[in-house]
Amino acid sequence: MCATDNRTFFALRIEELADRLYGVALRFTRNRAAAEDLVSETVVKAWAHLPQLEDRTCFEKWIFRILANTFFSQCRHRREETLAAEEDEDGFSLFDRLHQPFLLWWGNPEQELINKLLCEDLDRALGALPDCYRAVVVSVDLLGHSYAEVAGMLGVPVGTVRSRLNRARSQLQRALWQQAQAAGLVRGSLDEGDAHD
Questions:
Q1: By the 8 A CB rule, do 97 and 129 touch?
Q2: Residues 120, 60: contact at Cβ < 8 Å?
Q3: Which of 25, 29, 172, 187 is paired with 39 by a 20 to 30 Å CA distance?
Q4: What is the pLDDT of residue 119?
Q5: Is 88 helix (H, G, I), strand (E, B) or coil?
Q6: How far is the C-alpha of 149 from the C-alpha of 146, rounded, in Å?
Q7: Are the C-beta atoms of residues 35 and 28 closer than 8 Å to each other?
Q8: How far apart are the first and last CA of the chain?
Q9: Over its length of 197 residues, how does the chain's per-residue pLDDT go in tens digits?
Q10: Residue among 121, 119, 124, 148 at smallest CA distance from 134
Q11: pTM above the 0.70 mark?
């Protein structure tokens, strides 16, 4: 492909994916300016490495991997990792129960409002996670990377990815449970909710 074709292809794909790139970057960074910087750095890296992309149909997955790798690289250079509370092994997952795909298929206004509120609650809960947990949840659950891919990006063992993902999901379900309690949608504690299953 000639340079002009490369530029046209790249510009069109970036234009199509810009909002999603920014959205994922914002989930990673929790800061608008940092998200913009992360997207900018990702685009620069992607342009520089475009000739290495053999299958252009894989562009979307490829650029999101660059975004994730760039974020992880930035984290490795500037953060001291903080581990949160011990793993919660209660087995109850409000996150899994509320995030059912069928909710997204309903077209009535009430369900659309519930979906919007759930997305806002989930974004708020996701933003409250420590960086090391949020990065794993976004990479695995939102971007669809495998445990091995995330382990490679972070430079940690697969077991660490599994552990962080488990802890992150546990913290998310607790946060969502508390938000549901505050909204009057559920009563009792998370542990009590598990007993009724």
A1: no
A2: no
A3: 172
A4: 67
A5: coil
A6: 5
A7: yes
A8: 58
A9: 567 788 999 999 999 999 999 998 988 888 899 899 999 999 999 999 999 998 999 999 899 989 988 888 777 665 433 333 333 444 444 444 444 444 444 444 444 555 555 667 777 888 888 888 888 888 888 888 889 988 888 888 999 999 999 999 888 888 878 777 776 666 666 665 444 44
A10: 124
A11: no
Cβ partners under 8 Å of residue 178, min gap 6: none
Q: What is the rounded distance in angstroms from the CA atom of residue 108 to the CA atom of residue 65?
A: 35
Helix-then-strand count for the chain, H and E: 10, 0
Distance CA 136, CA 142 (A): 9
Q: Greatest CA separation found in the chain?
A: 64
Do residues 5 and 51 make contact, with C-beta atoms less than 8 angstroms apart? no
91 sits in which H/E element = none
Within 10 A of 190 (CB to CB), how many other CB atoms are there? Answer: 19
Which of helix, strand or coil describes residue 82? coil
Residue 57's alpha-carbon distances to 53, 61, 109, in angstroms, are 9, 9, 36
Q: Give the span between the Cα atoms of 161 and 47, in whole angstroms.
A: 29
Please give the backbone phi and psi of residue 84, each rounded to the nearest 5 degrees, phi first: -90, -165
Give me 79's structure tokens.
Answer: 């953060």
Query: Can you tell me which residue has the tokens 């581990």?
Result: 83
What's the pLDDT at 192? 54
